Amino acid sequence: MFGGERGLYQRLTARQNLRYWGALYNIPETESRRRADKLLERLGLADRADARVETFSRGMKQRLHLARGLMGDPRVLFLDEPTAGMDPIASRDFRTLVRELQAENRTILLATHDMIEAELLCDRVSLIDRGRLIAVERPKTLATWITRYERIVVGGAAPAVLERVHKIDGVRSITINGDGTARIDTGAAGATKAVLEYLIGAGVTTLSTSLPSLEEVYLEVIGRREPQT
């Protein structure tokens, strides 16, 4: 499944597009008609089934792309940047559809630059840099690669306590959040433990820790490098 304008015939209707692809898959006419109607209903396009694709929004075209990819009832589905250009609501709805397909025991290969999307949808993530495969791991496993970059959110800490925390080896920064809590970012092995011990000793009781997101892993592993010349 490609995104954007490719792969859809703009002057045909949604139903005609699916019937055309059904013919390419050599699906019998009766079955092709049934599958097309079922997919249009499932992907929320039934009420626009006989409208020309050129009148569709970007989100509607993406859903039709997915319907087209499902006409052959594949067990393996390739999705290339499926939510590119979608608004947040359309992206959320599309991801829900992808999760439904996962529940049907289909294998889905998703190519995306959206790390949040990869983290939400993928069981395993492959990181590729300049054509070189760096890793194939679960998102949570990748996050443990840089556990030294943990963050601590603390509530009710006095300014003097935070000032002392900033001097602990391995503390990268302290950011005061809008709700009055403070986010402490670490950058060295053992720093989180030292910070927690100090805060607890100082009487602070509102504490939480978290691992980096997949986006942060990507930036650390791939993004923060010299540009290619």
Protein architecture, described:
This protein has helices spanning 14-24, 29-42, 58-70, 88-103, 115-121, 139-144, 159-166, 191-201, 214-223, and strands at residues 76-80, 107-111, 125-129, 132-137, 151-155, 171-176, 182-186, 206-210. By secondary structure, the chain is α+β, with helices and mostly antiparallel strands. It has 2 domains: 14-111, P-loop containing nucleotide triphosphate hydrolases (Rossmann fold, 3-Layer(aba) Sandwich), CATH 3.40.50; 147-211, VP9 protein domain (Alpha-Beta Plaits, 2-Layer Sandwich). Helix 4 (88-103) links the parallel strand 1 and strand 2 (107-111). The longest helix is centred in the middle third of the chain and has 16 residues, at 88-103. The protein is elongated and about 75 Å long.
CATH architecture annotation name of the largest domain? 3-Layer(aba) Sandwich
Number of strands: 8
CATH C-level name of the largest domain? Alpha Beta
**What is the arithmetic mean of pLDDT?**
87
- Spans of at least 5 consecutive residues whose pLDDT stays below 50 are none
| Structural category | alpha+beta
Radius of gyration: 24 Å
- Helix content bin: 40-55%
Total number of domains: 2
Distance between the termini: 33 Å
CATH topology of the largest domain: Rossmann fold
How many H/I helical runs? 9
Percent strand equals 15-25%
CATH homologous superfamily label of the largest domain: P-loop containing nucleotide triphosphate hydrolases
Q: Please list the strands of the largest sheet in the order they lie side by side.
A: 6-7-5-8
